[in-house]
Amino acid sequence: MIRSKFHFSDSASPVLALAIHNGHRLPEALLPYTQISAEDRFREEDPHTGSIANRYANHIILETSRFAVDLNRSPEKAVYQNPEDAWGLVVRNGVLPHSVLSGLLYSYQNWYTTLRYQLERMLERHPVVIVLDLHSYNHRRGGPDAPPDPQEKNPDIILGRSNLPEGYYHFIEDLRQRLDGQSFAWGSLDVRCDVKFPGGHLPRFLNDRYPGKVICVAVEFKKIFMDEHSGVLNPVRLDSLRQTFHQHSQAWVNYNLHIKTAR
User: Fold this and answer.
1) CB–CB of 47/24 below 8 Å?
2) Given this model, what pLDDT does residue 1 score?
3) What separation in angstroms does the CA of 197 have from each of 9, 13, 153, 186, 192?
4) How far is Cα 242 from Cα 49, in angstroms, rounded to an integer?
C-alpha cells in the first residue's frame, strides 16, 4: 500500500536523503473511509521535499500520503484513526476495517525492512552513513490573510538533534553554521537547531539501531517556497533553497568523511 521511489546510484556517496512525508496519494482501499479533504491533507503534508531529496544520488521519496501511513511514527501510532492523532483533524468517517488497518501496518513494516536492507548495503561500503530526514512545516497558522508566524520561533531551516547522542551535536552544529546566513533567493537563511521539531520516530529508530554507524538528522524547511494555503509553488525560491542546502550539506559531509565515531 506504500509507494516509494528508491534510488541508489552512487556507491561512493555515504548520504541517503529521505522525503517520507512528500506523498499525497491514498491507497484505493482507504478512500471509502477517508473524511479529510485533499486540500487539508496537502496542507499538512510536506510537498516538494522530494524535489530536495532527489538532488542526492541516493534517495527515497514517498508517493503515499502520511494520512495513509505515517512512517515518522511508531507502529502503534502510524495510522491516523482519531482527531487527536492528526492535530484535531477529522481524518476518518468511521472505524477502519481490520483488513485495511492490517494491510497498512504490514506495508509500514515492509518499508522499514527495505530501508534497513538498503542502509546495511551502504554500511558495507562506508563506516558511517548520513541520513537526511527531510520535512517542511507551516508558518501561517493564522490563515491565508494573516501575517506569517514570528521569525523568532520559525527559522527557515530547523535541524533536529534530540534523537541523536549528544556526542554528535557538534557535527550538526557544523552543518548549521555552514547554512546559516547563506543567500537564498531574496535574502539569507536563518538556520537553527532544536526549535519546535525535535525529530520523530524514524531518526530515533535509525540512531538507536545503528549507533556509531548512522547519523540521522531531522531537517525541517519552512514553507517559504510555496503558499501553504493555496498550495501554489514558487519555483524560484524552491530551486534556490534546494541548491543551497545541497551544496552546503555535501560540503559538510565531505569535510567529515574521516569521522567514524562520535566522541
Assistant:
1) yes
2) 82
3) 31, 27, 11, 25, 11
4) 9
Q: Which residues of 118-146 are buried (b: 16+ CB within 10 A; e: fewer)?
A: bbeebeeebebbbbbbbbbbebbeeeeee
The label of the residue with cell 558495507 reads 124
At 258 the pLDDT is 59
Task: Parse the chain into domains and list their residue ranges.
Answer: 4-255
- How much is the average pLDDT of 22-28? 97
Burial (CB < 10 A; 0-12, 13-18, 19+), residue 2, is: buried
E strands along 148-241, which residues?
Answer: 157-160, 183-184, 187-188, 191-193, 214-222
| Residue where the block lists cell 473524511 | 35
Q: Cell 524535489, residue?
A: 51
List pLDDT tens digits, range 2-16: 999 999 998 999 999
Q: How far apart are CA 247 and CA 262, in angstroms?
A: 24
Q: Give CA angle at 221 (210, 3), nearest 5°.
A: 60
pLDDT bucket at 136, cuts 50 / 70 / 90: very high
Residues in CB range of 145: below 8 A, 6 or more apart: none
Give the pLDDT score at 261. Answer: 40
Environment class of 43 (CB within 10 Å of its CB; exposed 0-12, middle 13-18, buried 19+) = middle
Architecture of domain 4-255: 3-Layer(aba) Sandwich (3.40)
Strands 214-222 and 187-188: unpaired
Residue 81 in 3-state DSSP? coil
In sequence order, the β-bridge partners of residue 160 are 218
